[in-house]
Amino acid sequence: MIKDFSVLYVGNIDLDNVGLDGTPADDRRYSNERLMESLHTAKLVAQLMDDLGFYALWMAEHHFQREGYEAIPNLMMMGLYLATQTKRLKLGAAFNVVPAWHPIRLAEDFAMADILTDGRVIFGVGRGYQSREVESLGGPLVDNDANREYFEEQMEIIFKAFNEESFSHKGKHFTIPAEVEFRGYDVKEITVVPRPKHLPVEMWQPIVSGRTIDFIAKHGIKGVVGLTGETLVTQVFAQYREACARYGRNLIPGEDLALELGFYLANSQKEAMDRLRPYHDERYKWFAPFGFVRYADEEGRSWGTPGAPARTPHIEDGVQQKAWICGTPQEFIDFLHELEEKYPGLEHIILHWAEGMPREEFMEQLRKFAAEVMPEFRYR
């Protein structure tokens, strides 16, 4: 049963000249003064969401983005600060780009944030998708198999750092501790100081492939399915449940998953689509080349696979696929009730902030959603 509503803010500034015919994504280059806007925006949105009763503000880690779409490089630091500016709101990492980190430094940063916020920071992990940032920060990405291998070894270390009072690790990429002498003895193990207060650590990871599903099911990680067409959502939700059962976790449909939806509320579906169109198109100008069009054709094939569409989607495609919900508040309520019938274990809905939408317009959408949609689900 749906009970928690959150927002994903990837760190975009207020972009100018948006839309399909607007400034090409690669031509955008903003000053440092403009790029700093993302941090102020995060504060304003977090405070509004806290007042309105939202569950969590999820943010994305990215680096070097002079284009202005994703301009928050450290989610633990951002979450810790926002916790001082709010009362109840949780702050989610969607997602820490693990291959851009030393795994122990990431574990330490989260542990400090967990302790200092008393559990209000949510730990999320991802393998990354931008070669410019991951490879520049020392991790592999272009070689997909190397990226997966590196990430999985890093995660093994993070689990040890969180859950074991002391540990050692010797793998292909990391030897921990270093084989050195310390104060007259040979170091054989280390202790992460401090470890998180709240154990086991609740972890989330985006689901993008079958191999991801098996990994997160095996390790008890919860999954986020974002801006994904209805057919693929059905497939992924079923695959996750089946994988969890193989590892002894018997879940009801939708349990331990979050569904991320794009949205716009207006007096009619047409009005909502017309208003959202330039922002939706701006998003996919940036994200479609990375493969982030998770729609299926009539035969169930993902866009971009042989025979399926490979073009940049229009808002009509997103609405038809039920990845973007446009219309009246009642229409959104009806859609959420349909989800509850299909996935009775689904508790978490994440609202996506279309990257081209100005801050004030999105905040007004949140006010409308909180006033006209959330009360239907909040008090059950």
Structure in words:
The protein is an alpha/beta fold and 380 residues long. The chain folds into 2 domains: 1-61 and 207-380, TIM Barrel (Alpha-Beta Barrel); 95-198, no CATH class. It is 41% helix and 15% strand. The protein is built from 13 helices and 14 strands. It has an 8-stranded parallel barrel with strand order 1-2-3-5-10-11-12-14, surrounded by 7 helices. A two-stranded antiparallel ribbon has the order 6-7. The longest helix is centred in the middle third of the chain and has 20 residues, at 144-163. It is globular, with a radius of gyration of 21 Å. The termini are close together. The model has no long low-confidence stretch (mean pLDDT 96).
Task: Give the tags.
380 residues; alpha/beta; TIM Barrel; 2 domains; 8-stranded parallel barrel; 13 helices; globular
Topology readout:
Layout: E1 4-9, H1 32-35, H2 37-52, E2 56-59, H3 75-85, E3 90-93, E4 96-97, H4 103-116, E5 121-126, H5 131-136, H6 144-163, E6 169-170, E7 175-176, E8 181-182, E9 185-186, E10 203-206, H7 210-218, E11 222-226, H8 230-246, E12 257-265, H9 269-287, H10 315-320, E13 324-327, H11 329-342, E14 348-352, H12 359-372, H13 375-378
Parallel strand pairs: 1-2, 1-14, 2-3, 3-5, 4-5, 5-10, 10-11, 11-12, 12-13, 12-14
Antiparallel strand pairs: 6-7, 8-9
User: What order do the strands of the largest sheet run in, or round the barrel if closed?
Assistant: 1-2-3-5-10-11-12-14
What count of structural domains?
2
Rg, rounded, reads: 21 Å
What is the class of the largest domain in the CATH system? Alpha Beta
Number of strands: 14
Unreliable spans: none
* Run of helices and strands: EHHEHEEHEHHEEEEEHEHEHHEHEHH
Multimer state? single chain
Strand content: 15-25%
Principal-axis shape equals globular
Mean pLDDT: 96
Helix content: 40-55%
**The CATH homology group name of the largest domain:** Luciferase-like domain
- Structural class call reads alpha/beta
- Tell me the CATH topology of the largest domain: TIM Barrel
| Number of distinct helices | 13
Spatial gap, N to C terminus: 9 Å
